[in-house]
Amino acid sequence: MFATQDEEARRGMRRPAAISLPKGTLGVLTPGMGAVSTTFMAGVELVRKGLALPIGSVTQLATIRLGKRTEGRSPLIRELVPLEKLDSLVFGGWDIFPDTAYEAARKAGVLEPNHLEEVKGLLGGIWPMKAAFDQAYVKKLNGPHVKKAKTKFDLAEEIKDDIRQFKKEAGAQRLVMVWCGSTEVFLTPDEVHADPARFENAMKTNHPSIAPSMLYAWAAITSGVPFANGAPNLTVDIPALQELAREHHVPICGKDFKTGQTLLKTILAPGFKARMLGLNGWFSTNILGNRDGEVLDDPESFKTKEESKLGVLEYVLQPQLYPQLYGKLCHKVRINYYPPRGDNKEGWDNIDIFGWLGYPMQIKVDFLCRDSILAAPIVLDLVLFLDLAQRAGLRGIQEWLSFYFKSPMCAPELYPEHDLFIQLMKLKNTLRWMMGEDLITHLGAEYYD
User: Fold this and answer.
1) Has domain 261-368 been given CATH number 3.40.50.880?
2) pLDDT, tens digit, for every residue of 263-284?
């Protein structure tokens, strides 16, 4: 549950005295204007026009119970907390290709032509800014629309200039940045990530441990802009940027949007553990043909994604506590680039479980999902919740947003929570806490006699 008031004070977690109301326009900046970001933008516009429903969005469709069950209070989340309205969102971003958001969406092939024509007016007017890109970190991609600078620090400063220019031209009062770019090669924490001074010096000396995604995160944080990491890249999962986020009063979260196969794992695995059913093995394979699949065809980028996907079961099942049930679990993950499939990813899972007296059973799952369709509402929710968090005075890692990520960030002394249902409880209890409502414990009425 939540910390005591003394612990809250120690951690800087005191309940907000008041949450500033959203005023003016909220700008959304996405490094990467490919399938995910353009599907998000198009979807918001279709919803604003009354032509579609925001299915998959917790901020738009989910309710939240307040008080006792007998009180019958279950408003929509957007009626409880002061979220920005969809009509107030404006969009911008960066990409290595100069295509407008409309052209990028058409090439991505996620949305049907009739939907794209309805949003052509909006998407056709969104031109990407030149990207800070280095093919050494995403080896399967290359594009002409990139920045040129002497050092990585200079590139980061150019990103800050882009942020200022976008805010001015869009007339935005506030901004949020969500990384929707590709998966970078696998990086481990380095001494240059230890504090802001060493990080800045490493940018100036073009240190190889400073990836492009980190430049965007640094630029956002030092500009006072909340940042979410939608890929499994290291990015803000380092002490230097976390310290800067606290100093600049900026909320951050990540990493790696939880969409298809891993979403199902965080639904199924908690169920197995709740019933004390054992697991011998879980084999997962994916086929996908979009830009993400092409990038992950490189072993170094796949290593980054693999680390993100493999950690889920270990944290959910806690084999150190249940060695007889999960101590010998064999967990394998494969991703295969298959161009004919496009954005319609397919995930196959073979799950070997065992029950009473050790008798074996099997479960087969074939999830034919649409990757960007599942990711787009996550982007929307993160934009609105991060903006809310900043207006509530929250800063640093927002663990209550773990619900949206495959590899959720948490404080260094803690382990990440992967159980989807615990994550949802934490998210909703955080919203209750913000608004001064009682937290829900699910104790029955009989305990209050």
Assistant:
1) no
2) 999 999 999 999 999 999 999 9
